[in-house]
Design a protein that fits this description.
Blueprint (H helix, E strand, L loop, with lengths): L8 H5 L2 H12 L5 H6 L5 H4 L4 E12 L11 E3 L4 E13 L5 E10 L20 H13 L5 E6 L6 H6 L5 E6 L23 H7 L4 E7 L9 E15 L12 E11 L10 E6 L6 H12 L2 H10 L14 H23 L15 H14 L15 H11 L11 H30 L1
Parallel strand pairs: 1-5, 5-6
Antiparallel strand pairs: 1-3, 2-3, 3-4, 6-10, 7-8, 8-9, 9-10
Helix pairs in contact: 9-10, 11-12, 12-13
């Protein structure tokens, strides 16, 4: 998939025999989406060693075209107006350098139909929201080599079970607020009216403005162009109370957290103003700490980029015509991993993150890359590979050179990298074949 930039079986296989081979792989009952997901973190865990890891999780809907007579076993998604599957993903990013370390864990599922029982009447184990806690718990084992873990989620991740179960020494949470929660009395300072706020949003508004700053906001589809926003920041300590409707009475009655609020000042006409309320278990003692929390939360955009590369702006997952929901789930698990590798290659082209080549390539592939590097170097200093041997940056340099980059006109983009990877795989296959033939000659 990384090579062909597609999930179409015909294009992946190259010929009829290749298409049938890939089809048999996804049809094999011993191949499951869960097993593919289990492999996501095999290289991510070691890459996290000694780092502060931002473990970002989110859910995306993968909508596949269907007709009334050909649903392919797909359940409802998109508020019941479409059919497809859902993919919940956690990925890891280095909190210091911003390096994309890879996928950690997740879940992929197909809804059997419309659920008629209200969420509040369902046990926690029967709610889809359990995926946030389950994924976070499994991620602790995958990311055990990390020095520190900060788990980041958007508003859907804001529920009491997450705050009360997941944090532990070395594992913190940073989540955007969805609910205006009831607070425990006596924690938030009294406001101008003389009484302490009883709800979370009022507490945020009562904190004094600590400073202002300009934030760069990336484009998000046709509805929001890239722009710079001037924002003000507030922060303080709050203690949220266990919801009255919470059925699990073993959870603590209150949880003490830090609240950081970011509000845009004078947004441009027609723009949706930025207003983030962020809860975290990290200590926030001053303005610098508060801005650091905002900076970490902004990295959450990486997971949205992953979903884009997997779908319409990359591998075209939603265009797949696989016949069954089970096979589409396996295909989705594979496509997410392929999109991850694609992003890592482009990101590491300048070598700023210091990742090893083994993070993406196997040992034999790295050997081929090392053999190619001196052959691809030119006579000038700019045409020499400047990166350490067996690093991912060095591998990216080789892929770019194979793709036609001449080292002079700007950094290589995804198309150049794609051409290089395609050519590399052909060279590597030829090198392996040559090694086999040489061995056979020696045996004769």
């Amino acid at each position: 998939m990384v090579l062909r930039k597609t999930t179409c079986l015909k294009r992946l296989g190259g010929d009829r025999a290749g298409e049938e081979s890939i089809g048999r792989f996804f049809a094999n009952p011993k191949v499951t989406a869960a097993k593919i997901i289990d492999s996501w973190g095999v290289r991510t865990g070691p890459a996290s060693a000694g780092r502060h890891v931002l473990a970002i999780q989110d859910t995306t809907e993968v909508k596949f075209p269907t007709t009334a007579g050909h649903r392919r076993g797909l359940g409802p998604c998109g508020h019941g107006r479409a059919h497809g599957i859902l993919a919940h993903v956690m990925l890891a990013v280095d909190g210091g350098s911003g390096a994309f370390l890879g996928l950690v864990d997740g879940e992929i599922w197909n809804r059997p139909g419309k659920v008629t029982i209200p969420v509040r009447r369902r046990a926690a184990c029967d709610r889809e929201s359990r995926r946030w806690v389950d994924t976070a718990e499994r991620a602790k084992a995958v990311l055990a080599p990390a020095a520190m873990i900060t788990m980041i989620g958007d508003r859907e991740n804001d529920f009491y079970g997450m705050w009360s179960r997941i944090p532990e020494p070395g594992v913190d949470l940073l989540i955007r607020v969805q609910q205006d929660r009831l607070l425990a009395p006596g924690v938030v300072p009294k406001g101008a009216g003389g009484a302490a706020p009883r709800k979370l949003f009022a507490a945020a508004a009562a904190f004094p403005v600590a400073g202002t700053r300009k934030l760069e906001l990336p484009a998000r589809g046709p509805d929001r162009a890239k722009r710079t926003a001037e924002v003000e920041i507030r922060f303080g300590t709050v203690e949220i109370a266990r919801p009255v409707i919470e059925k699990d009475l073993t959870l603590p009655e209150t949880v003490r957290l830090r609240l950081v609020e970011v509000r845009e000042i004078n947004p441009p006409d027609g723009a949706d103003p930025i207003h983030w309320r962020l809860l975290t278990t990290h200590e926030v003692n001053n303005e610098a700490d508060a801005w650091q929390i905002v900076s970490w939360y902004q990295v959450r955009w990486t997971i949205e980029q992953l979903f884009r590369v997997t779908k319409s702006q990359g591998l075209g997952l939603e265009e797949s015509q696989m016949a069954t929901a089970d096979r589409l789930m396996k295909l989705t698990a594979t496509a997410l991993k392929a999109a991850c590798i694609d992003m890592q290659l482009v990101q590491e082209r300048d070598g700023t993150h210091g990742l090893p080549a083994s993070h993406v390539f196997s040992e034999p592939e790295t050997d081929t890359i090392e053999a190619l590097s001196p052959v691809l170097e030119g006579k000038t200093e700019r045409q020499r590979n400047p990166h350490p041997r067996r690093s991912l940056a060095s591998a990216s340099w080789v892929m770019a050179r194979l793709g036609g980059w001449n080292c002079y006109y700007g950094p290589p983009g995804p198309i150049v990298m794609h051409r290089g990877v395609e050519r590399f795989h052909a060279i590597h296959a030829g090198r392996l074949l040559g090694s086999i033939l040489e061995r056979d000659v020696r045996l004769d």
